[in-house]
């Protein structure tokens, strides 16, 4: 028998491109203020936390979750776990939290993600022989087969070509993402979820973007017809985002205006050479398990690491583009790897709180290696 799980709070920092306002802030310093505000918004004291789960993709060990938890004032007796499934990690943290609640192992779990491209360590491979210099590398392999482990931009370009998603359509999607984000900023829609940090209260990359400017940006991969541009790619960024997941018993003690139920979770794998398509299978399985379809979704947060992959997922899942990323997506914010899924979770939580009872929302994200996580939430 499983128990229902509820998200009762969600907060995030602004998302800031690498080398920006957060460039000197370590991950624990980035996360702690967000966690403290998240707890206070739900009226939950640190002593109630049973577990801390933090997604992080760039720190290569060291369990940054423990540093994050201690700096945020979580009791030393509370365990802390770091998840690394690359881009999925922040949403995976929510998924693991919900499972702990469902099995009765926890009543209250702090879950989210934090990433700093600005402070991430440089990567070097040890030399094989004495006297040789270490070999620098940008990323680890995500597949055992080099021919099925393309650079992410190349993978997005291959996806765009296979699905006939033109560069012009990618540009239109990107400009629309920025338009949505600007509209949300101007309306104050995002203000309540963002915790001010280093005098930064808004996502720094969001701008009034034109198709002409996009066309002048560098082509990163692919051909003239369907190629991926720098403008249609989410920039590397720094951010933290967290949610609090609790049992029904604890949720009953918190205002109903602050509760969103976790209806379902699916993680799955797909073709490692086309990782951007993995959310399609994961979401279809999730819909089947929950007995719903795209028509039941009133708001969706779909990761925009590349415009091409977001378009492919929205098309294949038959989601209404108007309900997707209503406050803008990663193309208008940036992509803080291990925190990106958690940012989606916070955005979905906030959007659902404005909807009617039982309104359903989807968050889905792909990761290198052909992995995906999809989560279905419903307004209580």
From TrEMBL:
Residues 125-144 are annotated as: Disordered. InterPro entries: Thiolase (IPR002155), Thiolase-like (IPR016039), Thiolase_C (IPR020617), Thiolase_CS (IPR020613), Thiolase_N (IPR020616). GO terms for molecular function: acetyl-CoA C-acyltransferase activity. Its EC number is 2.3.1.16. Keywords: Acyltransferase, Transferase. Residues 261-378 form the Thiolase C-terminal domain. Residues 6-248 form the Thiolase N-terminal domain. The keyword Transferase applies. The keyword Transferase applies. Belongs to the thiolase-like superfamily. Thiolase family. This is Acetyl-CoA C-acyltransferase. It comes from Stappia sediminis.
